[in-house]
Specification:
Distance between the termini: 105 Å
Shape: elongated
CATH architecture of the largest domain: 6 Propeller
CATH topology of the largest domain: Neuraminidase
Strand content: 25-35%
Largest sheet: 5 strands, antiparallel
CATH superfamily of the largest domain: TolB, C-terminal domain
Radius of gyration: 35 Å
CATH class of the largest domain: Mainly Beta
Number of domains: 4
C-alpha cells in the first residue's frame, strides 16, 4: 500500500508540475513565500549535513507549494546527479528548462552529459549545441563539449552502419572469475600471453594452442614477481621476446617502466629495464614490437608530447641499442589520451586507443595506415558496436588480419573478493574494411640429421623478385626461427651452420587470404664429415632465360656456398647442372654444362681455389619428376653440388 501511495503521489506531482510550469514561468529563492522558503532552508541544512533523504523531502515540499521554484529543482537535480540517479536528475533538469527559457549553461551541460553517458546521442547533441551557444565561462568544459558533440555526430552515423561483430569468449583454460585482460599473441597464434589480477596483484600468464584447444594458463615464471605488478606487455612475432610494464620496481626510473626478457634454454631470462632513453621519471607502458623486433611502439606521459598520453616509437640499431624515442605525431596523437598501440605484422597498420578523436564516447579503438617512414594517415574509428559509449580495451590482430583478440566485461555477478569487475578475453572476426594487409610467415626447425638435436644456425632470406636482402638472423637455441613475410613474393632461404652443409630453399608465398600456414618446415642438416658423395640442391641459383648468365638474384646462394667452402678449406665440390627436356638433347647438355661452369667461375672469382671446385652438366638425363607439366619442368631445371672429397 505504501508503494502505491508513493507512486500515486509521484505521478500527481509530475502532472501538477507539467500543468503549471508553462503558465507561471519560474521563481527564485527571493520571490517565494515564507512557507516555501522555510522548506527550502531546511533542505539546504540537511544537504550540508549529508542527510540527503531529508533534503530531498524538504525540497519536494517546497515544490508542492511553489511548483515553478527553480532553485529547489536545481538542488534536487544536483542531489540526484551525485547519487547517480540519472532519470530523476534528467527529469528536474528538463523541468528547469520548461519554466526558464534561458537557464544556466550548467543545466544544458549536465543534461547533455547525462544523455551522452547513456548513449542518447541525438538528445545529447541538442543540449550540447545549446550549451555551446551560451556565454560559456569554462574553457575546459567548452573543449569537452565540442569533443562530445563531435562524438555524437559520429555515433549517430556509426549506429546506422554497424560493423560485423560477433565476439567469442575464449575457453575457461584462459578466462576465470578473476579479471583477465591485455592479450598478445605470437605470429603463429600458438602462444597467448595475457594479464590476470589476483588479490590486487597483476601477473603475466601464458597459454599454448594444442591442435584444437588452449592449454590451461600458467604464470610466466621468471618474469612475474611476488611484490610488484607486471602487465601491459607484448610478445614478439616468434614468441621468444616479451616487453612488459613494471611499476614501482626497485631501480626503476619512473612510476612505470618498460622491461624486456628473452626465452632462452627453456626459460625466460631475468627481466632487464630498457632504461634511458626509453624510460623516464614519468610513465611508460603498453609496448608493441614490430614483426622484425627492430621498432618498439609504446605509450608515455613524458614531456614534449601533444597531450596527456602520447604514442612514441624507438628503433634498434644493428648493435642492439635503442634510439631516442620519437613522438609518432599527429594525426594519431591528440591533446588528450592516445595509448595502447599495436603495430600489425604488415608494418603498415597501427591500432590504438584514444579519447581525443571523434568516436562513440569514452576511449575508442582506431587504426591508421602508414604513409611513409615518418607519417601516418588520418585515423579511422573501428566503428559500432566494436566501440561503445564506454571505454574499449586494447586489441591485437593476427597476421592474416581477419581475427582480433581483445578484453571485454564478463558476467558482472562474477567478481573477485575485492569486488573488481570481471573481464575476459574474447576474439572476433574483423570487418574487412578495418583489416590490415594480410601477411604470412616462414617457420623453420633446424636439427642435426643424425642426432635430431636443435642447431643454432644462420638464416638468410632474400626477396627474389626485388633482389633485396629481406632477413639476416639466427635460429633460437631450440633451433627455431620465425620470419614474417608479405604475401605474393618468392623468397630464397639459406640456412647455414659451421661444420654443416648449408640448406637451400625457395619459398613462394601465395597472395591469397585463404592461405593460413604457407611454409612451416623441419630441416635436418648434414655434417660435412658425413657428406662425401652426397648431392645437395641449390634452389636459389638463377639464370637469365635460355642463357648461362647468372642472375644477380643468385648472390645470396653463392655467398652461402662460398662461406661453407671458405670455412672448410679441404672440401672439394662439383657443381652439377640439369635441364628439362624442352629443346634438343645436345643443346640441353651444353646449356647445363655452361650453367654449372658459370657457377664455378663465380666462386673462383670470389676466392675459392680452382683446384677445390669442378663442374659437370647432365642435361635432361636425370629428371627428378615428369617433364609433362611446367611445374615438373621447373623442378628438373636445377643446379646442385656434390661433395667430392674432404
Amino acid at each position: 500500500m505504501i508503494f502505491f501511495q508513493r507512486y500515486f503521489f509521484t505521478i500527481l506531482f509530475i502532472t501538477i508540475v507539467q500543468n503549471l510550469v508553462f503558465s507561471q514561468g519560474y521563481v527564485g529563492v527571493k520571490e517565494v513565500d515564507a512557507k516555501t522558503k522555510k522548506f527550502y532552508d531546511e533542505g539546504q541544512k540537511s544537504a550540508m549535513a549529508q542527510a540527503f533523504g531529508k533534503a530531498k523531502s524538504s525540497y519536494r515540499k517546497a515544490l508542492e507549494i511553489t511548483p515553478n521554484f527553480q532553485d529547489a529543482m536545481i538542488e534536487l537535480a544536483g542531489i540526484y546527479f551525485s547519487q547517480k540517479n540519472e532519470d530523476s536528475c534528467v527529469y528536474f533538469l528538463n523541468a528547469i528548462k520548461d519554466i526558464n527559457p534561458k537557464p544556466s549553461a550548467r543545466v544544458y551541460y549536465t543534461l547533455a552529459t547525462l544523455y551522452y553517458n547513456r548513449g542518447d546521442y541525438e538528445l545529447a547533441q541538442v543540449e550540447l549545441q545549446k550549451y555551446l551557444g551560451t556565454d560559456i565561462k569554462s574553457a575546459k568544459s567548452a573543449e569537452d563539449a565540442k569533443l562530445k558533440l563531435a562524438n555524437c555526430v559520429f555515433a549517430i552515423e556509426a549506429k546506422k552502419k554497424p560493423r560485423l561483430f560477433s565476439p567469442i569468449r575464449l575457453s575457461d583454460s584462459i578466462n576465470t572469475y578473476r579479471p583477465e585482460y591485455l592479450p598478445s599473441i605470437s605470429a603463429d597464434e600458438e602462444l597467448l600471453v595475457f594479464s590476470r589480477m589476483i588479490d590486487r596483484q597483476e601477473d603475466l600468464y601464458y597459454s599454448q594452442w594444442n591442435k584444437d584447444h588452449w592449454s590451461r594458463a600458467q604464470p610466466l615464471e621468471g618474469v612475474n614477481t611476488e611484490k610488484y605488478n607486471e602487465a601491459g606487455h607484448c610478445v614478439s612475432a616468434d614468441g621468444k621476446t616479451i616487453v612488459f610494464t613494471g611499476c614501482n620496481m626497485p631501480g626503476g626510473l619512473g612510476s612505470c617502466d618498460l622491461y624486456i626478457s628473452y626465452f632462452k634454454n627453456g626459460r625466460w631470462t631475468q627481466p632487464a629495464n630498457l632504461d634511458s632513453p626509453i624510460n623516464t621519471p614519468g610513465w611508460e607502458s603498453q609496448p608493441s614490437l614490430s614483426a622484425d623486433g627492430n621498432v618498439l611502439y609504446f605509450s608515455s606521459e613524458r614531456p614534449g608530447g601533444y597531450g596527456l598520453r602520447d604514442i612514441w616509437h624507438t628503433e634498434k640499431s644493428a648493435s642492439g641499442r635503442w634510439s631516442t624515442p620519437k613522438n609518432i605525431g599527429a594525426p594519431i596523437n591528440t591533446t588528450r589520451n592516445d595509448s595502447s598501440p599495436f603495430i600489425h605484422a604488415d608494418n603498415q597498420t597501427l591500432y590504438f586507443m584514444s579519447d581525443g578523436l571523434p568516436g562513440m564516447g569514452g576511449t575508442d579503438l582506431f587504426f591508421s595506415k602508414r604513409i611513409d617512414t615518418e607519417h601516418w594517415d588520418v585515423p579511422i574509428n573501428l566503428g559500432y558496436p566494436i566501440n561503445t559509449i564506454g571505454n574499449e580495451g586494447a586489441l591485437v590482430v593476427n597476421i592474416d588480419g581477419d581475427k582480433a583478440y581483445y578484453t571485454s566485461t564478463g558476467a558482472k555477478s562474477l567478481q573477485d573478493k575485492d569486488g573488481l569487475e570481471n573481464t575476459d578475453i574474447y576474439s572476433f572476426e574483423l570487418d574487412k574494411e578495418i583489416r590490415p594487409q594480410s601477411v604470412s610467415f616462414f617457420k623453420a626447425l633446424v636439427l642435426d640429421a643424425t642426432s635430431s638435436k636443435p642447431i643454432v644456425s644462420g638464416v638468410k632470406i632474400t626477396d627474389i623478385q626485388k633482389n633485396l636482402s629481406f632477413y639476416n638472423g639466427n635460429t633460437s637455441d631450440d633451433g627455431t626461427a620465425l620470419v614474417i613475410m608479405p604475401k605474393g613474393d618468392q623468397y630464397g632461404i639459406q640456412i647455414s651452420a659451421q661444420g654443416y652443409i648449408f640448406i637451400s630453399e625457395s619459398v613462394k608465398i601465395p597472395d591469397s587470404a585463404n592461405v593460413k600456414m604457407p611454409y612451416i618446415s623441419t630441416y635436418k642438416m648434414e655434417k660435412i664429415g658425413n657428406s662425401i658423395g652426397k648431392t645437395f640442391p641449390m634452389r636459389n641459383i638463377f639464370f637469365e632465360s635460355g642463357s648461362d648468365q647468372l642472375s644477380s638474384a643468385s648472390n645470396a646462394e653463392l655467398g652461402s656456398i662460398f662461406l661453407m667452402m671458405k670455412e672448410n678449406p679441404d672440401i672439394v665440390v662439383q657443381i652439377d647442372g640439369h635441364t628439362d627436356n624442352v629443346g634438343g638433347e645436345k643443346d640441353n647438355l651444353l646449356l647445363s654444362q655452361n650453367r654449372a661452369k658459370s657457377v664455378m667461375n663465380e666462386l673462383i672469382k670470389r676466392g675459392i681455389p680452382a683446384k677445390k671446385i669442378q663442374y659437370k652438366g647432365f642435361g635432361e638425363s636425370k629428371p627428378l619428376t615428369d617433364n609433362a607439366t611446367e611445374n615438373g619442368r621447373q623442378v628438373n631445371r636445377r643446379t646442385e653440388f656434390t661433395i667430392i672429397s674432404l
